Every structure is written in C-alpha cells, then in structure tokens.
Please model this.
Amino acid sequence: MTQFVQATLYGLLQGGLLALVAVGFSLVWGVMNVVNLAHGAFVLGGAYVALELHDALGLDPFVSMVPAAAVLFALGYLIQRYLVNLVVNAPIFITLILTFGLEMVLENLLRVWFTPDYQSIPTGYAQDSLRLPGDIRIPYGKLIAALLAVAVTVALVYFMRRTRTGLSILATGMDRGAARLMGVKARHVYALTFGIAAAMAGAAGAAEGAVRTFSPADARSFTLFSFVVAVLGGLGNMWGALYGGLVLGVVMSWGSQLLSGTMVNAVAFALLVVLLAVRPQGIAGKAFYASRVEV
Amino acid sequence: MTLVVEDLHAGYGRVPVLHGVSVSVARGDIAALIGPNGAGKSTLLRAATGMVRVSRGAVRMDGRDLTNAPIETIARAGIAHVPEGRRLFPGLSVRDNLRLGGWRARNEDMGTVLELFPRLHERLDQVAGSMSGGEQQMCAIARALMGRPDFLLIDELSLGLAPVIVEEIMARLGQVAAEGTGILLVEQDAGHALEVAQRAYVLENGRITVTGKAAELAADPRVRAAYLGV
Ligand SMILES: Nc1ncnc2c1ncn2[C@@H]1O[C@H](COP(=O)(O)OP(=O)(O)O)[C@@H](O)[C@H]1O
Ligand SMILES: [Mg+2]
Model:
C-alpha cells in the first residue's frame, strides 16, 4: 500500500513537470498545425543552459529556469521566423521532415558541445526528502520542480486568455485569415508562439536537470512524452496539457513499479495507442481548434 | 475620403473571376453591390482586402495604394471586412471576439457597439459559436466596428436571416454610416440593401452591368425581375 501511494505521488510530481515539458509542443501543434519533433531537443537545451550556468556561476537549476527560458525563447523565435515559417502552409508531412531534421541537428550539436555522457546538476537539497506519515517520502527537488512547473503552466493559460498577445495567438490558431482581418500579423504571432513554446521547454529542461540525469539522447523521449501529453490533453488545450501530464506521470510511475526502466517509454507509447483508439479528442476533449480554417 | 476599386482583375490560380470591376464608396455613404450567386461578389471583397491576389487594377483608399497589400496592412489602414460565413472565433466568447475586433486599434471600449446591438450585451460571456445566426451576424459586424474602421465591407449580411433581423441590422448600419463610415453591402437578396444604400452596382459574370442610384436600380424593371423577385 505504501508503495502504491508512494508511486502515485511520484507520478503526480513527475506529471506536473511533464505538463510543462509538453505544453509548448501542444501549443505549437494547436496554433500552427506543426508537430515539432525538435521539441525534446529544446527541453534538453534548457537543461544544458542550467548545467552551464551551474558550472560557471554556481547558479541553482531552479533559478536557471528563467535564463533557460530566455535563451530558448530567442532560439525558438528565430527558428520559426527563418526556418519553420517557410513551410508552415506545407502539408504536415513536410513540416514533420523539417522538424525531424532540426531535431537531428540540435541533438548532435548537443553531443558535440556537451559530450554524449549523462550529466546531472548537483544541488544541496534536491535529494533530501520530506517525510510524510506512513513512511512516504517526497524528495524536495521533485516537489519544487512539480510546483514550479504547474505554476508556470497555469500562468501560461492565463496569459493566453487574458492578455492581448495571448488572445491574438488563440485567434490566429482558430482562424488565421480572420485574425489577419483583425490586423493581427500572423507571421509575428507564429514566431512568438514558437518562441513561447521553446521557452516553456527550456524552463522545463532546467527543472528536469535538477531532478534527474540527462544526455542528448533523451531528446527523443521528451518529444515522445510531449506527444502523448498533447494527445491526452487535446491539441492546443493548455489545461489539457496539465491533465495529460498528470495522467502520463502516474501511469509511467506505476509502470516503473512493474517493469524495468527502459520499458517506461513503451508504457507511454501504449497509453497513446489506447487513447487514440478510445478517445481521440483527448481527455479534456474540448474542440477548441476544431473549426480551423485556412486562408 | 473614398475607397476606390478600379479596373480590378482577380481570380483563383489561373481562373479569372473579375474582369475589370470598378466600384467606389465614399465615407458616410452606403453602396450596395448585388448580383447572382457566383458572380464574383465575394471575390471582389477578398481582392479589396488582400485575401486574393489582384492581377490588374488598383485598390485605393483616400489616394493611398493598397493593391495586393497584406491582409493585416489593409485592415490596419482602416478597411474592415465581414467575410462570407462571418468567420467569428467560434470557441471564444462574444467579449473576446469583440476584444479581437478592437485588437489593432487597442480599443477595449465596447459601449458604442453594444449600444448599437443591445442583444449582444446579454451574450457577452456566451461562446460565439452557440448563438443564433442573427446574433452571430451582429457580433461579426460589432467586431468589425470595434476597430473603428473608415470603411466596412459586409458579405451577404442577410443570408439565412429572418427579414425582421435583417431590417434591424440595416437600420443600425444607417446609423454607422451617418457617423462617417463608408459601407459596401454585398447582397444576393437585394431588397433590403437597395433600401438603405445610396449607390448600387450590379455584378454579373465578373463585370459591372448596371450602376446608378440605389432608388433608380430598385425601380429598374430588369433589376426588379432579376434581384427583387418582382
Ligand atoms: N476559393 C476558391 N477557389 C476557386 N474558385 C473559387 C473560390 N471561391 C470562389 N470561386 C469561384 O469564383 C467564382 C465567383 O465566386 P464568388 O466570388 O464566391 O461569387 P459570389 O460571392 O458572387 O457568389 C465562382 O465561379 C466560384 O466558383
Ligand atoms: Mg459570395
């Protein structure tokens, strides 16, 4: 029983962080109709920014979520503006090839710059645990990571619904032509959306760096997790990313109790297959972008 | 103080639709453009607001050349287009739709348009896609007016709406024009449009075939037979 509760709690914490890992992926898919296979590489980019800042300045990885987000925002904005924008109207197959290629380039650059080895960012407290009754332990690192991640994800949702910029992004995702008729510059909105998505990934990566080891090869698992969370939550639905993250986190945590470590990705993938068969609109399932119209 | 479309040629891909159409609307006036299904009325509005390419001719507003300018540039210049099918943001509330209408002008003051269409007041928090057709049309026009445009182009306002609703909306448009906005009404069902308009054009097969004062057109036996069902 203790073990089950422990695994569930771990799963929820991990899931909170997964929500932040995936929310940008879901946003880009929902707004731009681009499945960004390089998203996982952005997450790792954030982790390596945090690693560098730790080695150079001794910065805490949770503090580095901010500079990691800033660096990745700039990178994402430029990549969209000068690369992805060229193919944003192309069939999804073309954008898949482009982002797949981008993923390979970024992953290999990480290998060259940071070696293919596993790295971790030491902190004085992340491994210490909060002890709860019933012999349940919660490592501080995972707790802080989950709380920060959920807070950032919720802030993003409010940003989208409440601010002028957020509203223009939502509108462009629903009907680009109509948004342009409102005077919204779609190109700029797309670049901004991609930048925000990369920033979220970067912040998530810095937090991941505080709680686990990572290597460039992890880019693909982060992309896979993002894919599963986005589909679980419903594309472009940012609350959905939160539910999706929590569900995936718990399922993977239960799975890891029963299966060996490398099988966890298989659990994520199985969840995706089951979901697509049973409820393709996702758990949250609001057809927010159902009425996509092209101009 | 006019929006001028001059000798406009436009189409889709290699298929020409408009063959040299000239139309002009002055600020404060209402002009009606009527014509049968497939004549190219929607294409004319799309060409005027940058949604389809113009191959020859010009679009000018107060002498400023806007031919083939990007959609958002034309919108920012002060030309609002209520497109075919209205294109509301259906998953967003009426309030958010109106906010988007005022997005470029940074106009958050909904008072004026809500006075014009009081029904929208009770609907502000309702999801736009769930309203009746008439309310959606009011929302689309209100959204366009939130940008405080100098010119308002409306595609098939009356399509699918009950006559009383159409009359209500047309009466409001009279007010809008009186306050200085130029309005171009594109209609297949010409009756109401010819009542509120000063000038009118008949577009057939991509060419203007009749033009004159709206009242004269409404009295013209050919127009009456073809577009007023008399
Ligand atoms: N998106 C499009 N692609 C290709 N042809 C189109 C498109 N929209 C309209 N057309 C064609 O252009 C012609 C004029 O259409 P349209 O401007 O919609 O006419 P109207 O609004 O007067 O009914 C029609 O022959 C129509 O089939
Ligand atoms: Mg039409």
